[in-house]
Amino acid sequence: MASRRLSHGNGSQLESNDATVTRLARQDRVPWSGNDERASVFRFICDGALLIRKSFDSSLLNGLQAVPSWLEYFHHPRSALLGVVSSMYSLGAIAAVPFVPSIVDNYGRRRSICIGSILMIIGGVLQGGALNLTMFIAARFILGLGIVFAIVAASSLIGELSHPKERAIMGSLFSSCYMIGSLTAAGVTLGTFAMASDWGWRIPSFLQVLPSLLQVSFISFLPESPRWLISKGRGDEAYAILVKYHAEGDENSDFAKAEYTQIEETLEEELKNAGMSWKQVLSTSGMQKRVIIASFLGLFTQWSGNGLIS
């Protein structure tokens, strides 16, 4: 792996790379729309990564429960059976969690997004073509499997590929796109609500495939994560991406050098801590409190508002 430590005239490092990246990012006055390369990666991030949060399965099921054709076709599922239908999406996501980190780290962000998108396409097709409730439930499980791969890989790619100056905006857009998916699901279900045939629920189910198809179509236009490339010993490729999309093509840019070195140092630090066991993580009261807060944050985020209603 080529080393590109940021140095100045006398060869000494005058400030930490974190501070350098922050300072130079603040000094950058080039708007994303004013740079062709940065604008192109912004557009493809929107199409290839942000669309993942437009997956609208959870909101879709809420709407389908009010569609007469869906209720009649599946014989008005109630009580525990309806709970299984609703929770199977989350159960699929939970089942995928143990495998996601290794796949995302070993195969890269783009391939992981493709894996998740393909699973969601399969799940959407099966759900739209479901012949019975068992097939419908299985489809929701597959959709849940796919969404975790796609979300973890996409959020990583957005954070690692976006220009530091625009990273917070892109991260916020990623979360906000969930609301777009929810509104789209509600609108589609409302539009097909009055259809007397099975297409009243099959059309919204099939439409779940559309965001994933767009992801598969556009993801090849996105560069891979520089962080992942550096971790795999492909430093030259990573540096070329940083130069092209963050430094306006200037191979001697201090900003690109500082970013590259910052990533290297972070990876080295993570490697040092890779052998830390859960016993060590929970060894002090302060760390125990942090683990509890981190664990319950996810629970309380979901166990509120529309989550309780649905």
Automatic annotation (TrEMBL):
<feature type="domain" description="Major facilitator superfamily (MFS) profile">
    <location>
        <begin position="43"/>
        <end position="310"/>
    </location>
</feature>
<dbReference type="InterPro" id="IPR020846">
    <property type="entry name" value="MFS_dom"/>
</dbReference>
<dbReference type="InterPro" id="IPR005828">
    <property type="entry name" value="MFS_sugar_transport-like"/>
</dbReference>
<keyword id="KW-0812">Transmembrane</keyword>
<feature type="transmembrane region" description="Helical">
    <location>
        <begin position="137"/>
        <end position="161"/>
    </location>
</feature>
<feature type="region of interest" description="Disordered">
    <location>
        <begin position="1"/>
        <end position="20"/>
    </location>
</feature>
<dbReference type="InterPro" id="IPR036259">
    <property type="entry name" value="MFS_trans_sf"/>
</dbReference>
<feature type="compositionally biased region" description="Polar residues">
    <location>
        <begin position="9"/>
        <end position="20"/>
    </location>
</feature>
<keyword id="KW-1133">Transmembrane helix</keyword>
<dbReference type="Pfam" id="PF00083">
    <property type="entry name" value="Sugar_tr"/>
</dbReference>
<feature type="transmembrane region" description="Helical">
    <location>
        <begin position="173"/>
        <end position="195"/>
    </location>
</feature>
<feature type="transmembrane region" description="Helical">
    <location>
        <begin position="80"/>
        <end position="100"/>
    </location>
</feature>
<keyword id="KW-0472">Membrane</keyword>
<dbReference type="InterPro" id="IPR050360">
    <property type="entry name" value="MFS_Sugar_Transporters"/>
</dbReference>
<protein>
    <submittedName>
        <fullName>Putative hexose transporter</fullName>
    </submittedName>
</protein>
<dbReference type="GO" id="GO:0016020">
    <property type="term" value="C:membrane"/>
</dbReference>
<dbReference type="GO" id="GO:0005351">
    <property type="term" value="F:carbohydrate:proton symporter activity"/>
</dbReference>
<comment type="similarity">
    <text>Belongs to the major facilitator superfamily. Sugar transporter (TC 2.A.1.1) family.</text>
</comment>
<feature type="transmembrane region" description="Helical">
    <location>
        <begin position="112"/>
        <end position="131"/>
    </location>
</feature>
